[in-house]
Design a protein that fits this description.
The chain has 142 residues and is mostly helical. It has one domain. The chain has helices at 4-32, 34-43, 54-89, 95-112, 118-133.
Length: 142
C-alpha cells in the first residue's frame, strides 16, 4: 500500500514547522537588537501612547527571548520527529508507529507553543490519523 498522502501531509507540516522556526529565529534576532527596537519605540511615531518604561521594555525583551527559544527548539524537534515518521512510512514499514509519532508531535508542540504551531500540527494530525486508520487491502483467494 502506498502512503503518498501521509508523506505529502508530513512534508507540508514540516514546512509549516520550518516557518515557525523562522519566526522563533526572528524573535531571537529582535531580542539581540535591543538598540534598534528601543530607537524605533522612542523616536518612531511620536505617539505618547507608545511610551514604555524601561522596566516594561526589559520585561518584554526577556519574554521575547524566552519565547523565541521555546518556539525555535519546538519547531526543530517537530521537524526531526516528522522526518523520522516519514522514514518509518517509506515502504509501509511501520505505519502505526509513524502515526503515533505524528499525532503526539502535533499535540505536544501545539500545547508547548501555546497555539503557534497548530496550523502545521493539523497536517501532522491528519497524517497520523490516516496512518492509523488505513489498512492494507486483503485479497481473497478462492
Amino acid at each position: 500500500m502506498k502512503r503518498t498522502a501521509e508523506i505529502v501531509l508530513g512534508i507540508i507540516g514540516a514546512l509549516g514547522y520550518a516557518f515557525m522556526a523562522a519566526i522563533g529565529g526572528f524573535m531571537l534576532w529582535m531580542q539581540n537588537n535591543r538598540d534598534l527596537i528601543e530607537t524605533e519605540l522612542t523616536t518612531g511615531t511620536g505617539d505618547p501612547t507608545t511610551d514604555f518604561s524601561m522596566e516594561e521594555f526589559e520585561a518584554a525583551m526577556d519574554m521575547l527571548g524566552a519565547g523565541g527559544w521555546i518556539v525555535l527548539i519546538s519547531a526543530i524537534a517537530a521537524i526531526v520527529l516528522g522526518i523520522v515518521a516519514m522514514v518509518l512510512l517509506k515502504g509501509n514499514k511501520k505505519p502505526v508507529v509513524a502515526g503515533i509519532i505524528f499525532i503526539a508531535t502535533a499535540v505536544i508542540i501545539s500545547i508547548t507553543t501555546t497555539g503557534l504551531g497548530v496550523i502545521a500540527g493539523i497536517f501532522y494530525l491528519i497524517a497520523g490519523i490516516m496512518c492509523l486508520v488505513r489498512k492494507p487491502q486483503t485479497t481473497l483467494e478462492m
